[in-house]
């Protein structure tokens, strides 16, 4: 009897002890699972094409972000610029996209047309994200009606570079570049007469490079490339302003003869005194040329307006999971913050996409002390124009570029070639 009682009691105790052990084990398991979810990292794949020093800076910034956001791990993946758009399109078709990526602004309409990129406006509204701080034209490529699918992260534009040594040899003030089209011609003629060098180098290699430069002359003369009131579905470059801009190019080459019809590269070799080129060249020209270099806002007509053409990149988020989309937004928000953009622009030489960066005292002090050549490009950003945000733009550009070259080679008048190009473009854009 006592034995039975003892056995019963021991059994009860063992049973209680077992249950307690099971409870503890279960609790530990719950805590372990909870901890995994609490401290697990959301991994994000980020495609980009920045290489060289720009790529190194991006890697550094991503490491900084990852260190300050322990629950998010951004993995930057470099893809050559010539391959990125194609690879993005293929990833969309296969359903295996990265989590976020960048694209040149010209590629954005094609990407948005896939409907695989998320609308960022809910995040903008939720976090009171200030879009007004961005230059208006930098936002064009991500906007579709009341939605926003991409945010600018870098920008570039075009301006005037001049050879101060050739200006001196020609008897011109090396610190005073031309401010108008008439002065560009006047200075160019003097330089050619006094030095035997060409006054101004035009980009006549064709393609987007030719169209991109000519568009500035068009805008300076008061024209539009495609009609914004038609949602960019109708040409307007064959206007009076367009004819004036193209006639100016024809006169530079055929009448004044200060611009050669020759392959690109005369300016860097000291064979031409002036050139239109990109803000990025403020980093490269000083190491390439053996003469004193100046930069300025590009000259515009006496009754015209300042203008430049905008380049750059946009960042966007693919439709994946809510968790990854939210984490991607955290990176986008951080990367486009004024503080990080100041750091990014200082290191890369990109033009600010945000007004708060362009007006920041530390940023401007840095540029003045390290890269004064960039200052005119920063100043003219407020007058930048966006190329039409349509997926057919590459084809349109090709048509216009061929028209420009035809006029320069005297295969038709500016009015004739532009009207013919307009007919081709309108037919192209009229197709659904």
Describe this entry's structure for a reader:
This protein starts with a helix and ends with a helix. Helices cover 50% and strands 14% of the residues. It folds into 2 domains: 189 residues, Periplasmic binding protein-like II (D-Maltodextrin-Binding Protein, domain 2, 3-Layer(aba) Sandwich), CATH 3.40.190; 191 residues, D-Maltodextrin-Binding Protein, domain 2 (3-Layer(aba) Sandwich), CATH 3.40.190. The protein has 432 residues and is of the alpha/beta class. The strands form 4 sheets. Strands 2-1-3-12-6 form a 5-stranded mixed sheet. A 4-stranded mixed sheet has the order 8-9-7-10. It has a two-stranded antiparallel ribbon with strand order 4-5. The radius of gyration is 29 Å and the shape is globular. Helix 8 packs across helix 9. The N terminus is likely disordered. It contains 17 helices and 13 strands.
